[in-house]
Write a structure and sequence with these properties.
GO terms for molecular function: DNA binding. It holds the Pfam family HTH_TIMELESS. It is a single chain. With 89 residues, the chain is mainly α. It has a domain of 50 residues. The chain is 53% helix and 0% strand. Helix 3 packs across helix 4. The termini are far apart.
Length: 89
């Protein structure tokens, strides 16, 4: 492909770069470019998160997010998801 150099100037993600360097269709289906969808926070989960935040925010020298994750009833939430949701709220 004579225009491949132009494509190299406009990378979109590491997965696409890998695909360009290793050959197209080198990624297996479901790998790289498609991200798994994160389930949205329900109003119930938001309320529980708010309560846990207010409970643990006064703890001196403790990691608030770690305490919230330990007591969050919904498994599978990551630290980043919790922080992002707290900032959004």
């Amino acid at each position: 492909n004579k225009k491949a150099f132009v494509e190299l100037l406009f990378w979109k993600s590491p997965a696409i770069v890998c695909e360009m360097t290793k050959g197209y269709s080198s990624l297996q289906e479901g790998e790289g470019t498609t991200r798994s969808r994160v389930s949205p926070w329900t109003p119930q989960e938001e309320q529980e998160l708010r309560e846990l935040y207010w409970k643990y925010k006064e703890v001196e020298g403790g990691d608030i997010i770690a305490a919230i994750l330990a007591h969050l009833p919904t498994p599978g939430r990551t630290r980043r998801q919790v922080v992002k949701q707290l900032v959004r709220m």
